[in-house]
Queue: 4 jobs
Job 1
Amino acid sequence: MFQINLFGNKLARQFVYSLMVCALFLGISTGATAQLRNTLNMPDNDDKWYHIGIVIMGTSNRFQISQHPRFLQSDSVMVTNPNNSFGFGIGGMHTFRISNRFEARVVFPQLLFVNKSINYQLKYADGGNDEKPVMDQNVESILLGVPVQLKLKSDRIGNFRVYMMGGVKYETDLSSKANSRNAENFVKLRKSDFGIEAGIGFNFYNKMFIFSPEIKISNGISNVHARDENLKFSNVIDRVQSRQIIFSIIFEG
């Protein structure tokens, strides 16, 4: 009985200490917020009709695959699964003011360097072509894109603001192998892709620039697979669509 009460008292002390820490943190945050409201950085920036920025991006990439009816007839390819991979990119941000709440954004030029892959499990691996029972087929891409977005902004609290955005994108693959005649080991992709995007971000106003971390989902809606009946790794797949999660760091003036 004594041990139970002691355990309960220990929990009570930890609870009180936690409340004290939370109260102290809340007090510091409140004071910091009040100080920020008194010292606004770049107070006239929201009145500009246009401003420019630089975007640095890290991406998580994968394919969305739909199997072709030929897959059920295949006597070699047993399984096809997309792999997750990472990439990076850079771009120029162009922002146009519409109202106090809305802005239009265009990212151009946007260059993404990505390496997507598909995992195959083969029943009959051809050792002469360096095939293995379990193997990955990599598809390297250099994507030149033009995302167009509508940005919805919250009220500015001191030097901080939250925003949401959504829009569409057009991309062209500068390294597409869709027309390559001797790419026997490649899943061929079309050059062009259309997609939709949505995400959330945060504006931090500094004295000389706005720092904005942002995360968004970018999904292709068109089929980028250039299916080839003569290719073992291509004829079992029908549709291939791109899927990306993009984390961006934006510097705007």
Job 2
Amino acid sequence: MSRMESTMVKLGTTAPAFELVDAISGKALGRDDIFASTGDEKRRGLLVMFVCVHCPYVKHVEAELGRIGRDYLGENGEGPIAIAAIQSNDIVEYPQDGPEFMREQAARLGWNFPYLLDETQEVARSYEAACTPDFFLFDADLKLVYRGQLDESRPRRGDFGNDTPVTGKNLRAALDAVVAGKRPDTDQRSSIGCNIKWREE
């Protein structure tokens, strides 16, 4: 399984529009549906996360992603940050990343955000997603303000990895800045994970 760094898309890029089926609810949801506020306050930002079920890098951080969902999206979706997780791996070659297993993963971890299946992989390409996990945080104007690592923790794989606890420190700092109406620090480190499993053309 090859290790890949995120592409570090240019800050200020507009969040590409999409419409995908949520593996949890079975409903088709678009970017604007997800970004729409359900509470009294307007959304401050949108977090798009490219993840999957089987990747050891995602497994290493998946519980923290659930905590981030509860802290920023809120228990009932009323929080300041809209969140979507997207699974873009080829499910023909990697059936363990298919909808049934996506639902199991979300239920096990208490993920309260939509978990969308990008079967054509067009959304991953439009976001220039490269690895799992790959994080893209947009501000209230849907402009990219953070792309990079969750934190410095890495799972041990052969001679790579560390014993640093998973805290979500870097992404949380960016989220806190967006919630406060500020720009996150532009000194950002790329995310590292398994490469997205592209379909053979």
Job 3
Amino acid sequence: MERFTRIVWILLGAVLILDALIVSITFSINSGVVATFGIGVLYLFYGLCRDRVRASRRKGLLQWMRIPILIGSGLMLLLFAFIAVLGRVDTVSHQEDAVIVLGTALNGEEVTPPLRSRLDVAVEYSTANPDAVIAVAGGQGPGDSITEALAMERYLVSRGVAEDRIMREDRSTSTYENFVFAKRLLHAHFDADCTTAFITNDYHVYRAGEIAEVAGIASTHAHADTPWYGIPVDYVREFLAITKFVLTGR
């Protein structure tokens, strides 16, 4: 059993390191990539040194590693399960006045798979609710040649969404700003309050909903699936982002 547990730690560490490298090469390096790589190195080292850690219990050597790793891993798993389950429960009625599609990183001028997943859900929503306005939200990130909002608009138009239904919010640099700036656009368009839904990937739904409330938006939501190879990095990054939200409120 001990040998099996040791192998599990080693494999888990190797998988996280490999996934972080794949995402960094395929897309870009962000806090989730760095944190995932770091956790992978820690797990790999812990697995390789596990025999020494267990043997050192009586001596007190290396014991400091075991408890923080187990507690931290347990807390992350609980949070991952919570946001994964909650993120797949949609609340949209398809009667909202507008839908806000939250932006995420581009690959040059092209939408990345996570963003494409969000936009595909937006296309489905636009078909189910043909009267809704679609606000695409996202500014220009480091290394991008255009704004996320423009890339999102282009993709939606290529999928048959009428250009006059789309509003671009292209100044934001965070989820909070996505909502604040999109709210201003929508209120100016409708000249009054309006009902909204937002679309984002499943791992992001919980935090986005909390931030929407902070921004003064009572919104329903629909989720987009997260590409399987991005799950470790995205969930680790979201763990960091939720921690920041708890501490700062944004």
Job 4
Amino acid sequence: MPNQVARSYEDAVSEELAALPPETLHTEVERMVRQRIGQQKFREAMLSYWGGTCAVTGLALPDVLRASHAKPWAECESDAERLDVFNGFLLTANLDALFDRFLISFNAQGRLLLSPVLATADLHLLGISPELRLRWLAPEHQSYLQFHRARMQEHSQPIQ
């Protein structure tokens, strides 16, 4: 499936770039087109992989589900890594916001990890409990989650 997404992505980028007037083509425009199309393809792949439901809660409201990268788009070494379904989780907007900022992550068994900077009262208001966990976890997710957990630890260190 990740290879299929990458091929579809390259085809869509080529089509969109071919439709642009030649005078608009430059590196920045191509980068923006690639990012927009790539993120759209990644979201479609996440919706398919997770069955249109949140990877944690099972919520099936596409308008509030976000395709979250464990290893951020800008830090990926290739388009294949950016578009890899195992580099992401389909999350509700509140979980996505916390995951994207490395305030939550998941351990190797899929259990929720919380940054020590999060107050218990705030977690309660967000409807987040420490018992939350991923509905399933493939072995291919592990390297991306390991990256994410390391980044979470960096962000949890007190500022000196």
